[in-house]
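Review form for a predicted model. The reviewer records the input and the model, then writes brief findings.
Reviewer: anonymous (R2)
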Amino acid sequence: MGLRIHFVVDPHGWCCMGLIVFVWLYNIVLIPKIVLFPHYEEGHIPGILIIIFYGIAIFCLVALVRASFTDPGRLPENPKIPHGEREFWELCNKCNLMRPKRSHHCSRCGHCVRRMDHHCPWINNCVGEDNHWLFLQLCFYTELLTSYALMFSFCHYYYFLPVKKRNLDLFVVRHELAIMRLAAFMGITMLVGITGLFYTQLIGIITMWKQRPHFPPSP
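Model under review:
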């Protein structure tokens, strides 16, 4: 089944998504500028590590876009309920529409979502039946990118050979320590949060799969 486009008009969600994009841009611009490219030019690391870094960054951005703009499982206004499945449907007391059981009404989006897990402001979208796996992908790639950036930040100061050619006229070189400290703070914060979120989402999907209803065959 193809994924349907879904767009939520929510300024709060836009601000949260903007913050995520800012952190993403901060990492893919400054980490290569300060760490990857200088060490590559002096022969300390192979070029494949830079390619891997940008590859993970692209996968992370694509996962964010897909999770944000994919319909999470919004119910239509006049759903067609198969005769044999009527006992698995109920009336929503907020929008007065019929919905399958274990669906929930999102007050921020204003509609019911099948198997809704939660409304995530960081993707400005609900996490439901149709985009739960995309949200899990986003958590995985974000955790991978954050770990990769933190690893290079650590190696830059404690493992790699010192960079000999440094252009002190560049802003990022003059303020390298402050920039790297901020990157490390954002990275550790995101890594801790995403690790917990990734674990809970993975457990939620497994539990949802085990508890899915088994509809009787239609006559």
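Findings: Residues 74-114 form one domain.
Further findings: The beta strands are 89-91, 98-100, 104-106, 111-113, 118-120, 125-127.
Recommendation: see findings above.
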